[in-house]
Amino acid sequence: MKKMLQAAAVSAALIFATVGASAATTIGLTGSGNSYTGSFTVTHSADFTDEYIFTPTFPSTLVTASLITIGITASENIDFTSVWLNGIELTKTSGAAGLEIAYTAAPTALTGPITLTVNGKSGDNATYSGTFNLTVVPEPESYALMLAGLGVVGYISRRKRKANLTA
């Protein structure tokens, strides 16, 4: 009975530790017009799962994301096992001296809340940093209005040209 209680206590502690470790972090955006950036830095001392959430107020964006870590010693090393941006896996590369990078291969069109999920293995005291770049994409109605305006300008230009030819 005592072993069952100990096992239950250890299981409960692991569940609570996992829930605490995977809490989402909301990242604020800075910028203006159609270009915004959000960034973060985090330090780990064990295997981890991090979740970052951006909630842009504009309807559609092109997003690029990148993560980088350089661990000179084993205790400073982080290996990204997987990195996902709204269900799209980021490209990962490794280099000399513990360099690890994850990035979007191309700008990705996303709407609504944007979630970055990072899974990795860490040394005793390892840090990685991340950056999000968001570019506002005009809505289809904006494109339609712009095309209509160009059509009107073309029509007026053509009428003026015909009027000049007949005069």
TrEMBL record:
<keyword id="KW-0732">Signal</keyword>
<feature type="signal peptide">
    <location>
        <begin position="1"/>
        <end position="23"/>
    </location>
</feature>
<protein>
    <submittedName>
        <fullName>PEP-CTERM sorting domain-containing protein</fullName>
    </submittedName>
</protein>
<dbReference type="Pfam" id="PF07589">
    <property type="entry name" value="PEP-CTERM"/>
</dbReference>
<feature type="domain" description="Ice-binding protein C-terminal">
    <location>
        <begin position="137"/>
        <end position="161"/>
    </location>
</feature>
<dbReference type="InterPro" id="IPR013424">
    <property type="entry name" value="Ice-binding_C"/>
</dbReference>
